[in-house]
Amino acid sequence: MKLWGGRFDRETDPRLAAFGDSLAFDRRLWAQDIRGSIAHARGLAAAGVITEEEAALLVQGLEELAAEFAADGVPAEGAEDIHSLVEARLLDRIGPVAKKLHTGRSRNDQVALDIRLFVVRACRERRRELLDLIETLVAVAEKEEGTVLPGYTHLQRAQPVLLAHHLLAYVEMFWRDWERFGDCRRRANVSPLGAGALAGSGFPLDRERVAAALGMDGVTANSLDAVADRDPVAEFIFAAALTQVHLSRLSEELVLWAGEEYGFVEFDEAFATGSSLMPQKKNPDGAELIRAKAGRVIGDLVAILTVLKGLPLAYNKDLQEDKEALFDAADTLGACLRLLPPMLSSLRWNRDRMRRAAEEGFLNATDLADYLVRRGVPFREAHHLVGRLVRRAAERGVGLAGLSLEEMRTVAPCIGPDVYEALTLEACLAAKDVPGGTAPARVGEALAKARERLARARAGK
């Protein structure tokens, strides 16, 4: 059933109809569309536009239709879009009163509402999944609290850090993502119903009452903006894309660390695959796919921003292209967030290999420079002196602690016997005793704070 056509004498060319129909993908908005229609029907009755009896019949029919769709699914064809499908099915179910449902409403404010309700729900779901991921990272960090590994810059070993500290860096990223989805949800949770096609409804609808019935925080302030605005879509996809980038960075490190050249971690067989040719292979396919899907969600963001960049006010058919990008970003991110926690929990860490890697490669060179500074040597000079000692140790094939005290003193006479204690991994770690540092005490504090924040977030505080 077409929701328009009185002005037209000719049938739509089937090629245009197939090109423009959106039911194949926007049918997944059926729950939002019916929920919005129920609130609108009650709003029409409250405004005296239809009777209470008519509203009750509309609501009953819509609720029955929702139960039908929930049980049997929504067909992918048979109507132009989900809005016309719902109205046609409602007409079949309750008769002519169904034709009154669209009073004071346009598909423009109707679809804008559906999209906002979808975004609000998707934000809530992604936030819940992010909490599960954060909790898993914290649990792994707690289990590996004393595990040491090299920290890297430029993919070169730099300074020793605790594995828990490294994992907590991703916890910080995912907390920011969690907050971004919360911000997106807050801005999306306002109702555009009553904006009509673009100029506002011609009936005295109580927009605030309808919004409250939908659990929304208020109403849009401008009718033109209400129907043309797709910021909730773009903002959601941006938050999804940045989260996916963070997932990709973590996955990349796991893939690297699982390689024999690193050997820091081993994937459980439940989260790895083999090769069709090489019997020895154990491939981290899950992490690789999470890494790859960042490109997909970034593509969704580019798509929606490109659609929006040249649109004049108010509604344009271009906005139909918002849904597939939104759905894809939500689905892709959700799948990745649900896969990663059990995969992380099943990892086996090679603590000895990581510690040996942290003990090699002069990762304590900065600590030796700091040692000299504490003995009165200006840092720039200390940096130069330690560089000379590193070269000497490298030529001899030993670490800095492998140089004798006499050798060290030929370069830096102020060095004392306590230098060897200062060069141990434990001393290097303990020295980074600043807020946010990798000192064991600071990492313990960070883990405790992460647990506290998780408890507050789970409690909705």
List keywords for this structure.
two-stranded antiparallel sheet; 461 residues; elongated; 4 strands; mainly alpha; 62% helix
What does this structure look like?
- The strands form 2 sheets. A two-stranded antiparallel ribbon has the order 1-2.
- It starts with 13 loop residues before the first helix and ends with a helix.
- Helix 10 (231-258) packs antiparallel against helix 11 (285-308).
- With 461 residues, the chain is mainly alpha-helical.
- Helix content is 62%, strand content 4%.
List the helices and strands and how they pair.
Blueprint: H1 14-20, H2 23-26, H3 30-46, H4 52-72, H5 82-94, H6 107-143, E1 148-153, E2 156-162, H7 163-188, H8 207-213, H9 223-228, H10 231-258, E3 265-266, H11 285-308, H12 322-345, E4 348-349, H13 351-359, H14 365-374, H15 379-396, H16 405-411, H17 419-422, H18 425-430, H19 440-458
Antiparallel strand pairs: 1-2, 3-4
